[in-house]
Structure formats: structure tokens, C-alpha cells
Design goal:
The structure holds two protein chains of two kinds. Chain A is α/β, with parallel strands linked by helices. Chain A is built from 18 helices and 13 strands. Chain A is globular and about 85 Å long. About 3% of the residues of chain A have low confidence. Chain B is mainly α. Chain B has a domain of 202 residues: MetI-like fold, CATH 1.10.3720.10. The chains are: A alpha/beta, B mainly alpha.
Chain lengths: 430, 291
């Protein structure tokens, strides 16, 4: 008799202890119901360095204007946001949307979230504060769908930047190349002098895609690039193959251990004088500065040869989730992000440039000023390597195929494979 | 009679919670994955339209997946052969009842306690052509400029196999050591008296007796290598030119970055079937043994 009761007790205890594990969503729902009425959760992957500092500037400005509101900084660590994006999807699909979240403008925002109806339009905010004229029209296109605006761009990063070692250029009499031909000629000259012309990092695959998108613009121009990513041009088009051949030539001029390097290690080769040039987004500036180098003195920045007059855009934006718990607070935060003060303070710390084109430029360094001038004047195209131009499945396939290519594959095989991947991922309508 | 009825009822009751949990969290989730793998779900809006085996068909047309299967086959074969060979070698060497046996046994067993992530990171540094083994070899006078190890798309998989074998050899060694200890000395003495050489004792007496150990080791090592993810993800990320890519990495990228849930589920079910091909015959074999 006693045995029975003990066993029953243990069985009930096991069932009872395992039940809370089954109702995972319940806990979140309860938390949302009990969320303070004045709480704003900001979700991002800015957990360290200048990025975290920049975010804190925005939070400070917001808290100054809304003293009764409490900000929860829900940043998730993990390079390029791979972890954060996965956590965000879990939350949004589970109905536990944060107040606002960081998302790249373009395909990442529109195709992933807006088309799935997870975002609410903020066109009203833009109209109220007259923001429509303060951002370039091409940029607003990247955060709009069907004529409605869905996010405020917080910053702009430039993808088509060439970074070079000033001393190597001076010692070898190299002028900053402006066209592809000049670039290849400079590479040949440097190679003859025994210097590695290009620093490349292919360990994480995306830096190669980054270089390739620069080459697509250089070889085909802006209209070609836009049509290609709208699915109107096949990926085995001769111009794509030309871009691939150019990539092949540049890889021949690059360091042979590119398979082990990350993008900052490639920049390190340039800063240490072991290589002459590298193509990387303007976040590379932060790396060179952290090595104690100064722009124009030890390192220099210029538009990627062949893309002068074009600005390949990477933009971080914040929007309003349809199920955000306190939408009025979110709108206030977006107001801060869109304000001149917010744009300046945030970008000074983060190392990017403001998305607004009417901010005072005096506090920014010369590399930033040059990029800001280009941003206001150049033709803008969305970056594909950083989630703006096309869906993520194609970017994954592109990253992989280009990795195979730079490790010794042929141009036409790669182009055919890219066209197949474009069809498979839905970029080229099936 | 009444006592044994109550005892059986009590046993069932005690097993019930675990049984229900396994039924839900293992078999329930597997069934759900199977269902999703036959749907058209792509993107963040669930789409449960039934499409039959279309995802599997399209998966087998992906060159990346075919390369993954080749890589997994090659990795599994090399991993098993390496482990069994070195495990047996170490076990035979340690079976001599030497003085330092415990020390060496622990030394060889230790790598198994490290996580695959740590192993992967360290071996990545070791095989880095500019800062790893090559530094050591060039100090010895070799010309290491063409030794690209983990950067070389032909060598990368072997580097990964070396790291994995290093990690798991201790486990195989421990299994074989236990197996060898289980063979009584009397048999070996009897064989020696009959005039058998040490090699003949090894091949005709010890090895056959070790067959159950070998089969058990193959099953455990096999299912680890078919599902491997973290070691390769950390060490090469899928490797130069996809030469170390495996289905686990493909599934992770396509599901959690590409939001292509139906394809990710199809890859998962595929991996399950690969492991089942290994495990199910073993279960039948051991069930028959019990009878």
C-alpha cells in the first residue's frame, strides 16, 4: 500500500514539473500582459564597441524626452546578427513582438517582414514631421512598399570603398585608381614590385560577395545592377560573366591564404603594409582607427574603382511592428532616430554616416564627410551582400557559389550555377 | 497473482511520464518535421499546402546538397576507419599491464570531454597555414609554402577528420580495452601452449571476440559523424569551396537564415533516415542476440 502512494507521488511530481516546460509561450504571454504600460523594448545586435555606444546615444535622447518611459535594451550578441535574427523571428512568430527592432533596409525589411504583414506603416510620422524631403528618395524607396513607408533609416554604410596603404602607394608611385583598367594596371605594377596588391578575406564568404557586388556595378552600371536584382536579367548574362572574370583577375592578385581570413584580418594586412588595397564597407574605417592610424596619413579611402559616382548602400533601420506592445512609445523613439540630433549623435559613435542629408557635417572626420557628400549626390543602389537587394536564400547561394569560384572554379560553370540558384530562390520567377 | 498485477501497474505508472514526454518531444516533433517537409512553407508566413515529395526532389537537385552527401560519406568512412584503427592500436598497447597505464588511459580519454566547439577552434589554429603547424615545420627546415592544410580545398576535409578522430579515439580505445580485458587470459595461455604466435592469437582469437565492441563503436561513432555540425561549423564554416559542408550546416543556414522551413525540415528528415539506416539494423541484430 505504501509503495503505491510513493510511486504515485513521484509520477505526479514528474508530470507536474514537466508541464511548465510544455507551455513555453504562456510565460511570454504573461510577461507581455504585465509589461509596464510605459516600456519600450529595442531589439538589435549592437552589443559592443561603437555600435553599442551609438545605440546608447539614441536611448539617452529618447529618455530625456520621455522621462516616464523605460527602455529595455534587448540586444543579442553574435556577428552580423545571425543569432539576433533567429531570436527575433522566434519572438515575432510567437506573438511577442519587441517595441522596435534593427533591420537592414530593402529586401530584409520588405520581403521578410512587411510582405508577411508583421509591420505597421509609419507614413503618418513622415508626413507629420515633414521627413519625406530630408532623406534621399532612392533611400526611402528601400524602406517603402506599395507607396507606404515602414521604417526610419538610422544610418548609412557605404559598401563601395577602396582602402589603401598610403606609404605603399607613395613608395611605388601609384595613383588612386578610378577605373577598372587603372586598378588592374596598379595591381600588375605592385605585383612586379613584390607587394601583394589586394587583401581578400573569404573565410566567412560574404566579403567576396561584397567585392563582387562592387564589380557588378563597375562592369554593368546602376541600371544593369537594379535589373539583375529585379530578376529581369539572367545570371549567365555576358556582363555577369565579365564581372566574374574581373573577380578572377583580382583574386590572382590577392593573398593566397584568403580562405582563413576574416574581413578585419584582411584590413590588417593593409594596415601592416603586407598588402596594398582592400575593398570593404566603411566600417573598415573603425578598424584602421583602432590600429592608431589616421586617414590620409597611413590609410586612405576612395570609391571602388569603376564605381565612382555610385553609392552602394547598407542601411540599418528601425520600424514599427504591427503587434508592438506600446506603439506610441515606438513612434516617439522613431522620431528621435529621425531627428538631426539623433542622426548625428548615433552616427558619430557608430562610425557610419547619417541617413538624413540636411545634418551639419562639422563634427565628422574627412572620410565620413567625403562619403556624406557622395551620398547626397551619387546614384544609390542597395547592397546585395548585406540583405538589401534580394532575398536571403539567394544571398546564401551566392555566397557559397562565389566561395567555390574563388577557390578555383570556372566562370561559365559559376554563372550557370548562379542562374539555377536564382530560379530556385525565387529571384528569377519560376 | 494480485501482487504481480499491481506491480506491473506500478511499473507502467512510473514509466508513463517519461514515455509521454518522449512520445511528444521526440516522436511528435519528428512527425511535425516530416509534415512540414512535405509542405510549401517558405518565409515567415506558414504555408501548410501539401506538396508531397517535391521538397525532397528539389533538394536532390541542389548541387550543394549532393556535395554535402559526398562530404558526409567521405567523412564518415575516414572517421570510422581512423577511430577503429587508432583505438584498437592504443588499446592493444595499453593492455600490457604497464606501470603508467592509468595515466595514459586518462590522457587519451581526455579529449572526449572537450566540446566539439573547443576542438574545432584549436585545430583550426593548428591547421592555419600562416600560423599553425607550418611555423613548426619551417623551423625544422621544410618548405611549407605549398602546405595549405585547411585552406586547401583538397586537404580541408582530412584536417577536419583528423580533429574529429583526435577527439573520439579515446572513447574507442576505452571500449576496446574493456573488450580485451573481458577475454580471459586462460584462452591466450592455452593458445600459446598450443604453439600459436602472438599475431595468430591476435587475429584468430582476440579480434573475433572484439566484434561486438567494434559493432557497438561503429554505431555510436557512425551516428555522431552522420549528424556532425558544430565541429565543422567552427573549424571551416563549410570549408573552402563547400568541401567540408555537411547537411547539418546546410539545414541550419537554410532554415534560420533563409526562412525556408520546408527545405530545412526535408534536410532534417533526410539526416534522420541516414542515421536510421545505421541504427535500425543494429537494433534488429541486438534484439536477435537477446533472444
Amino acid at each position: 500500500m505504501r509503495h503505491t502512494w510513493i510511486v504515485l507521488l513521484i509520477a505526479v511530481a514528474i508530470i507536474g514539473l514537466s508541464l511548465p516546460g510544455c507551455s513555453g509561450k504562456g510565460k511570454n504571454d504573461q510577461a507581455a500582459d504585465q509589461a509596464a504600460p510605459q516600456e519600450l523594448t529595442i531589439f538589435s545586435w549592437w552589443t559592443a564597441g561603437g555600435e553599442a555606444d551609438g545605440l546608447n546615444e539614441l536611448i539617452k535622447l529618447f529618455e530625456a524626452k520621455n522621462p516616464n518611459a523605460k527602455v529595455v535594451n534587448a540586444a543579442v550578441a553574435g556577428g552580423a546578427g545571425t543569432n539576433a535574427k533567429a531570436v527575433l523571428k522566434t519572438r515575432m512568430l510567437g506573438g511577442d513582438a519587441p517595441g522596435t527592432f534593427q533591420v537592414h533596409g530593402g529586401a530584409e525589411l520588405i520581403d521578410t517582414w512587411v510582405k508577411a504583414q508583421y509591420m505597421a506603416s509609419i507614413t503618418a510620422l513622415f508626413n507629420e514631421d515633414n521627413l519625406g524631403s530630408k532623406f534621399p528618395a532612392q533611400l526611402l524607396d528601400m524602406v517603402s512598399s506599395n507607396g507606404l513607408i515602414y521604417a526610419v533609416p538610422a544610418n548609412i554604410h557605404r559598401s563601395n570603398n577602396l582602402w589603401y596603404n598610403v606609404k605603399i602607394f607613395q613608395d611605388n608611385g601609384i595613383e588612386v585608381p578610378k577605373t577598372l583598367d587603372e586598378w588592374l594596371a596598379a595591381c600588375a605594377k605592385l605585383k612586379q614590385a613584390g607587394i601583394t596588391p589586394i587583401a581578400l578575406a573569404s573565410r566567412n564568404s560574404w566579403p567576396v560577395t561584397h567585392l563582387f557586388e562592387n564589380l557588378l556595378v563597375a562592369v554593368g552600371g546602376v541600371d544593369f545592377y537594379n535589373d539583375l536584382f529585379a530578376g529581369k536579367i539572367a545570371w549567365d548574362d555576358p556582363k555577369v560573366m565579365q564581372a566574374l572574370s574581373t573577380l578572377e583577375k583580382l583574386v590572382a592578385y590577392a593573398n593566397t591564404d584568403h580562405s582563413t581570413l576574416t574581413w578585419d584580418q584582411a584590413c590588417g594586412l593593409v594596415s601592416q603594409g603586407k598588402a596594398a588595397m582592400t575593398v570593404m564597407g566603411d566600417w573598415a574605417k573603425g578598424f584602421f582607427l583602432s590600429q592608431g592610424q589616421k586617414p590620409g596619413v597611413e590609410f586612405g579611402a576612395a570609391p571602388t574603382p569603376g564605381t565612382v559616382g555610385t553609392f552602394i548602400v547598407v542601411t540599418d533601420t528601425f520600424g514599427l511592428p504591427a503587434k508592438a506592445p506600446n506603439p506610441e512609445l515606438t513612434i516617439e523613439f522613431l522620431r528621435v532616430v529621425a531627428s538631426i540630433e539623433g542622426q548625428v549623435n548615433f552616427n558619430l559613435k557608430k562610425g557610419s554616416i547619417p541617413a538624413r542629408i540636411d545634418v551639419p557635417t562639422d563634427r565628422f572626420d574627412e572620410v565620413a564627410k567625403a562619403n556624406m557628400a557622395d551620398f547626397a549626390a551619387n546614384q544609390l543602389v542597395p547592397s546585395c551582400a548585406h540583405g538589401s537587394a534580394t532575398n536571403e536564400n539567394f544571398v546564401i547561394a551566392l555566397n557559397n557559389q562565389l566561395n567555390v569560384f574563388v577557390n578555383g572554379d570556372e566562370v561559365d560553370k559559376t554563372a550557370t550555377a548562379l542562374e539555377a540558384a536564382a530560379k530556385d530562390s525565387g529571384l528569377r520567377g519560376e | 497473482m494480485k501482487e504481480s498485477g499491481r506491480e506491473r501497474w506500478l511499473s507502467l505508472l512510473l514509466l508513463a511520464p517519461s514515455f509521454l514526454l518522449v512520445l511528444l518531444f521526440v516522436y511528435g516533433f519528428i512527425s511535425w518535421s516530416g509534415y512540414i517537409s512535405m509542405s510549401a512553407w517558405r518565409g515567415l508566413v506558414p504555408d501548410y499546402t501539401f506538396v508531397g515529395l517535391k521538397q525532397y526532389a528539389s533538394l536532390l537537385q541542389q548541387p550543394r546538397f549532393i556535395q554535402d552527401l559526398i562530404n558526409t560519406g567521405l567523412f564518415t568512412a575516414l572517421f570510422l576507419v581512423g577511430n577503429l584503427f587508432f583505438g584498437l592500436l592504443l588499446a592493444v598497447l595499453l593492455d600490457r599491464k604497464l606501470r603508467g597505464e592509468t595515466f595514459f588511459r586518462n590522457l587519451f580519454l581526455f579529449p572526449m570531454s572537450i566540446s566539439f566547439v573547443v576542438t574545432g577552434t584549436i585545430w583550426m589554429w593548428v591547421f592555419n597555414p600562416s600560423s599553425g603547424l607550418n611555423v613548426f615545420f619551417s623551423a625544422l627546415g621544410f618548405d611549407t609554402s605549398n602546405w595549405l592544410w585547411i585552406v586547401d580545398k583538397r586537404m580541408a576535409l582530412f584536417c577536419v577528420v583528423m580533429a574529429a578522430v583526435w577527439q573520439m579515439t579515446g572513447f574507442t580505445m576505452a571500449q576496446y580495452l574493456a573488450g580485451l580485458r573481458g577475454i580471459s587470459d586462460d584462452i591466450r595461455e592455452a593458445a600459446r601452449i598450443d604453439g600459436a604466435s602472438e599475431t595468430q592469437i591476435f587475429t584468430h582469437i582476440l579480434l573475433p571476440q572484439l566484434l561486438p565492441v567494434t559493432v557497438g563503436a561503429i554505431v555510436i561513432l557512425g551516428h555522431i559523424s552522420l549528424k556532425i555540425f558544430d565541429l565543422i561549423f567552427v573549424m571551416t564554416g563549410g570549408g573552402p569551396a563547400q568541401r567540408t559542408d555537411v547537411p547539418g550546416i546546410y539545414m541550419f543556414e537554410t532554415t534560420f537564415r533563409g526562412d525556408f522551413f520546408a527545405r530545412g525540415a526535408a534536410i532534417g528528415i533526410f539526416m534522420l533516415l541516414m542515421v536510421a539506416v545505421l541504427i535500425v539494423p543494429y537494433l534488429i541484430y541486438s534484439h536477435r542476440m537477446d533472444k
